[in-house]
Design brief:
With 153 residues, the chain is an all-alpha fold. It has five helices and no strands.
């Protein structure tokens, strides 16, 4: 179980890093003019989701569910682990509700074809990452607390 816990905590940290980075970028990204924002979306972020975000989030969810099975007879750690699994599930749902539609929409945009409501897309994309950051931090905190309880037993 120790190796699973270590792997889980590493994946939990990796799952939290991208959405937290987006939170740190948020004030500056909200000041970008339309064509620069589009260039950032289409070029800077290309490949990050499949490379780090998606695998880390899915890995964190899978290892958390595995820990949930192992901890099913321990009420304190079971509840915390369930909360983390629920947060990872909500994090993935948030991506598909907020971020993925924007990613798909902007794929073929150019500065000349950018819709007049492009700021709505920007807000939706940033809100998705902000919500994901909250879920990832909640999951990480629950997993760390569960591990601390186990180590104290």
């Amino acid at each position: 179980m120790n190796n699973l816990c270590r792997a889980n905590l590493i994946l939990a940290i990796l799952a939290a890093l991208p959405p937290l980075a987006h939170i740190l970028e948020l004030p500056n990204k909200l000041t970008l003019e339309s064509s620069l924002w589009l260039a950032v979306q289409q070029h800077l972020y290309r490949g990050w989701g499949p490379f780090l975000g998606g695998p880390a989030e899915i890995g964190a969810l899978i290892t958390t569910v595995a820990l949930l099975v192992i901890r099913r007879e321990r009420p304190q750690t079971r509840l915390l682990t369930f909360m983390a699994a629920a947060a990872y599930t909500a994090m993935l749902i948030t991506f598909f509700v907020f971020n993925e539609p924007v990613n798909k929409a902007i794929t073929n945009w150019t500065p000349a074809t950018l819709p007049s409501n492009w700021t709505d897309y920007r807000l939706r994309w940033e809100a998705g990452h902000a919500i994901a950051a909250l879920f990832s931090v909640a999951a990480l905190a629950a997993l760390v607390r569960a591990r601390m309880i186990e180590r104290g037993e």
